[in-house]
Amino acid sequence: MIPITQPQLGEAEAEAAARVVRSGWLSQGPEVAAFEAEFAQMVGAPHACAVSNCTTALHLALTALGIGPGDEVITASHSFIATANVIRQTGATPVFADIELGGFNLDPDAVSRAITPRTRAVLAVHQIGMPCDLGAILPIARAHGLRVIEDAACAAGAQIRLGDQWSAIGSPHADIACFSFHPRKVITTGEGGMLTTRDPQLDATFRLLRQHGMSVPDTVRHAAREVVLESYPVSGFNYRMSDLQAAVGRVQLAALPQIVARRRELAGSYRRKLADIDGLTPPAEPDWARSNWQSYCVRLPQGARQIEVMQSMLDSGVATRRGIMCAHLEPAYAGLRTAPLPRSEAAHRECILLPLFPQMTEAMQDEVAFALHAALHASHGLSAVRALSRELVR
Ligand SMILES: Cc1ncc(COP(=O)(O)O)c(C=O)c1O
Questions:
Q1: In contact, 52 and 239? CB cutoff 8 Å
Q2: Dihedral sign, CA of 49, 54, 57, 61?
């Protein structure tokens, strides 16, 4: 069975976790602080604050910006449902804008059209690790006095060119960027998240809110030689990352450049291996973006039936996933009025994600290509599907 993904974990991660267990301090402590400093350095951000996952990171980001009831936040429906959920959790209303033609990220023109007097922010997703068009979205937001949050859940290690400067996603280019370290992402801590910002006030607010609104963290009180009493100036949350997670994350982070390099190599060889399937559209990478290839999302030839193709590939031992979901099509969002989102719906219906992980071999990619050829042939009888190379069939 070729899985959709497989985290790259080894002895170094196991050793890091054991080190924390032996230290006797398991909750948010010195390992979290070190992970934050190393992550900030990796993405070029002045501040990085670790939390329990990206959903809580996004919720903290919106809350710290003061977004709440009566506000509208423009975002993509075409994203994992957490993106829309966190807007609702603040009491604000998600306003969905469609995605660009030929890509999976917000269309800047659609963002412009969605702005109303109640709009306070844009939550822009770097979907499956492909940077969204911040070069166009940021000026639109600035012109309307809107805050911008980057949902960079999948985008650790991705890069964007603004003007003639390349920089890491998360530096951040907007007000705040939020990352996930779920095992489906390029680096993992089991569960985990990170917020980056250039604004020290925002960073201080994240730190206060992630730990119950506590004025003096327990690490400081633990180290003090005099009794220190904490107070609770605001009501916060428990969104902490543990030292166990952070220690694993530090090892993963050190490997991020190699992991991304390998993913880029694999994406390149998928493009070549799938080139002879007529009508199949590989993912596009704009010349101002360098994806980390967290997922490899292909659009099936017209008329191919997504679920049948996925089932046939599964029967051949290849796991896939459907195209990125659309929140507005889920029962949870049934009552929400939204502009038509034809490109989001088409991408959701017509795309599938293929397996991609650093340990993947050339032979595994050949198997995926073979299974996809065969599935398209079986599901649709596509006359356009060409014979596989003799080598592959053998
Ligand atoms: C675009 C996007 N945003 C947010 C999340 C939520 O991340 P987490 O699982 O760390 O809460 C995900 C998770 O897959 C995601 O893909």
A1: yes
A2: positive
Look up the pTM and report it.
0.95
Q: Taking a C-beta distance cutoff of 8 angstroms, is the pair 194, 218 a contact?
A: no
User: What are the structural domains of the chain?
Assistant: 11-254 (3.40.640.10), 257-393 (3.90.1150.10)
Residue nearest to atom 8 of ligand 1 (CA): 54
In degrees, rounded to 5, the angle at the alpha carbon of residue 64 between the alpha carbons of residues 59 and 68 is 70
214: left (phi over 0), alpha (psi -120 to 50) or beta: beta
- Ligand 1 pocket by C-beta < 6 Å: which residues? 53-55, 79-80, 82-83, 125, 151, 153-154, 180, 182, 193
Give one DSSP letter per residue of 217-280, joined into a string. Answer: -HHHHHH-SS------SS---B-PPPHHHHHHHHHHHHHHHHHHHHHHHHHHHHHHHTTTBTT-
pLDDT in tens, 55-106: 999 999 999 999 999 999 999 999 999 999 999 999 999 999 999 999 999 9
* Residue spans of beta strands (DSSP E) within 52-115: 72-76, 93-97
**Nearest-5° Cα angle at 150, 48 to 251:** 40
Task: Indicate which atom in ligand 1 lies nearest the CA of residue 79.
Answer: 1
d(CA 66, CA 88): 14
Residue 273 annotated in active site:
no
Q: For residue range 139-160, what is the model confidence (pLDDT) as tens digits? A: 999 999 999 999 999 999 999 9
**Nearest 10 degrees: CA dihedral of 258, 260, 261, 262?**
90
- DSSP readout, 149-165? EEE-TT-TT-EEEETTE
Amino acid identity for residue 229 in this structure: L
Q: Which of 365, 359, 324 is nearest to 99 (CA)?
A: 324
Short-list 137, 132, 149, CA closest to 66: 149
List CB contacts of 68: < 8 A, sequence separation 6 or more.
90, 91, 92
Catalytic residue, from 120, 147, 173, 185: name it. 185
Distance 364 CA to ligand 1 centre (A): 27
